[in-house]
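Predict structure. Chain length: 163.
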Amino acid sequence: MSEPRIIPVGGGTSFPGPTGTPMTVKLGADVTHGAYSLIEYTHAPHAPGPPPHVHHEHEEAFHVISGRLTLDVDEDTFQLGAGEFIVVPRGSVHRPYNTSDEAVTFFFIASPAMDGFFAEMAELNDATRGAPTPEQLREIGERWDSEFTGLPTSGHVDMVNEG
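Prediction complete.
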């Protein structure tokens, strides 16, 4: 049986997120037995976010803490403000990004857990200076149920762009 766990303000495991700004895993697979990850993330003003992608076996939910998050889900675009929450069903092509002049901070839950994906992305971005090849993104995506849609066939993908 698991014990109750308190995560203090500023607590968790932090590393650079896919867009280069800090990402903090508040609860990861090690604590939730793989059921879900709870992650806090901030996108800088005008940050493009990740390339559009789909999870066939995962759902994600986003809760905006401050600022405005833009989220494309299939053919729709949503603007979420502080306090708003959205669930992205598995199988939906989606992309969270920031179109505003202010940073946006949000929590997101991935179920099952995907914090290992983000840790690997941090290592890949570090190794490629934030510009992995489409092949590298496809390979990591295949391992983690993240199918990037619309990637170029060659070149590099600029992941770390803080606006």
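Summary: Residues 68 and 81 are 5 Å apart (CA to CA).
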